[in-house]
Amino acid sequence: MSQTIALESHSSASSPLPTLYAPRTMKLSIMSFTTLGFYLIYWGYKNWKIMKASGRTAAWPPICGLFLPFTLFSLLDKVKDEARAAGVSTTKLTISAFGFLMLGLLKMIPVVGILFNMSSFLALIPINRAFANINAAHQQSKPEYENFTWLNFTWFAVVAAWLAFHIVREIMRVS
């Protein structure tokens, strides 16, 4: 039995990178916008969790996701070999990560910072596409999270109800 365990642990250590979290661009965009950027924390958390599960890091995924503008460079460093093998330019990924970091810092500007926060997902789109290309290069099947789920639609309904409430309240207050 110990030989079986040893063989299994050896084979998992030399296995290729597991499927990265790379939802469709539309889902990434809509979820990021409707959650005011909080979906990007989730995106980072999921990818760091994959890195930890594959033994490529000892970092704590929740913290790495929370501080994604600062940890994104390290995440990209962990997948750079797979990115090159998939034909993805690592220079473009670094530029996108820098843009994401700048937008993350600009969101601290009073009043207009929310606009930078809500648009920060734009810098993450090329990285997300690169992760999808890495998954495709490994000929991994399309994951179930790629499309919208019932939880996503529930979130849309909550946000829509919240917005409708505040719009009606403002109209009633002005009238």
Overview of the structural elements:
Helix content is 73%, strand content 0%. With 175 residues, the chain is mostly helical.
State the major sheet.
none
Radius of gyration: 19 Å
Please state the structural category. Answer: mainly alpha
First-last Cα distance:
77 Å
Number of helices: 9
Approximate helicity band: over 70%
Tell me the total number of β-strands. Answer: 0
Q: Globular, elongated, flat, extended or rod-shaped: what is the shape?
A: globular
Approximate strand percentage: under 5%
- The secondary-structure element order is HHHHHHHHH
* pLDDT averaged residue by residue: 82
**Uncertain ranges:** 1-14
Keywords:
mainly alpha; 175 residues; disordered N terminus
In short:
By secondary structure, this protein is an all-alpha fold. Helix content is 73%, strand content 0%.
Task: Please give the structural blueprint.
Elements: H1 2-13, H2 25-34, H3 38-53, H4 61-66, H5 68-85, H6 90-106, H7 113-119, H8 121-137, H9 150-174
Helix pairs in contact: 2-8, 3-5, 5-6, 6-8
